[in-house]
Amino acid sequence: MDKQYKTIIIDRQNSVVIVMLNRPELHNAMNDTMIAELTAAFTEISKDESVRGVVLRGKGKSFCAGADLNYMKGIAGFGFEENVKDGKKLAALFRAIYDCPLPTVAVVHGAAFGGANGLLAACDIVIAEENTTFAFSEVKIGIAPATISPFVIKRIGEFGAKELMMTGKRFKGPEAEKWHLVNRSVPEEKLEETLQGYIKQFLTSAPEAVKVTKNMIGEVIASDDFDETINSMAHLIATLRASDEGQEGMSAFLEKRKAKWVK
Q1: Is the pLDDT of residue 263 over 90?
Q2: How far apart are CA 72 and CA 58, in angstroms?
Q3: Beta bridge partners of 19
Q4: 43 φ, ψ to 5°?
Q5: For residues 75-99, average pLDDT
Q6: pLDDT beyond 80 at 58
Q7: What are the distances in angstroms from CA 90 to CA 85, 141, 145, 159?
Q8: CA separation for the pair 32, 90 (Å, rounded)
Q9: 139 pLDDT more than 60
Q10: Contact yes or no for 53/90 (Cβ under 8 A)
Q11: In what order do the strands lie in the sheet with 170-171?
């Protein structure tokens, strides 16, 4: 992860990687370059077995103000096929974050407009500073939050999506928490403490077990065969109990000591 990027900063802190949106003068608005760089970064991070967690946040006054104005000017003249191609690039970014096998935490402040909500919704955990302003503002300019919708609606459900997406209204952290768009809405002075609390929990958990659990949740949600899912989960627990981590974890518990992965 030594690659130099133009619109993001990658900072490794022990086994946790911080992905920082780095266009502060434009409130970290997304353009073609940022979309491509974020996609590449999450794809690369996902392959690094020494990483235990990923934090996504924004430099400066805002998490992300959505799409960059010049980027929007460019796509305004696109034809149908060009728009499809552009939409797929953005979807690939959200999918790269969503499919990351590691625990991912978004730390949100300032503003999260439009596509920014796709970034955070694709993460496992979202912590927001309570005065952050959120908006699905697409309807205000005659479009819909189409590309982000699969990820956001997974988080907030049908009727939360109807209220927030169809009105395009602005709302703050506490309402975002009410709709489950974010996990925690906290005062600014509690933001770092809350983040470190989540990181500590991930780092005291078995690294492979965390990955397996994340994948397991996706499989259970995607399955439409309840009986087969129950059977599959019985096989999974048997495999995990016999694994090196499972044996070490159970031994540590019975011997009243810390497991080897706890640092």
Answers
A1: no
A2: 20
A3: 10, 56
A4: -65, -40
A5: 91
A6: yes
A7: 9, 19, 12, 25
A8: 9
A9: yes
A10: no
A11: 111-113, 133-135, 170-171
Cα 122 to Cα 152: distance, rounded to the nearest angstrom: 8
Distance CA 257, CA 107 (A): 33
| Dihedral sign computed on CA atoms, order 12, 96, 4, 21 | negative
Nearest C-alpha neighbor of 185 from the set 99, 251, 127: 127
Bridge partners (DSSP) listed for residue 128 = 108, 185
Tokens of 32: 């073609």
Q: How far apart are CA 23 and CA 37, in angstroms?
A: 13
132: which residues sit within 8 A by CB, 6+ positions away? 63, 108, 109, 110, 111, 112, 172, 173, 176, 185
In degrees to the nearest 10, what's the CA dihedral of 100, 102, 103, 107?
Answer: -60
Spell out the CATH class of 8-202.
alpha beta
* Residue the block writes with tokens 């205000």: 140
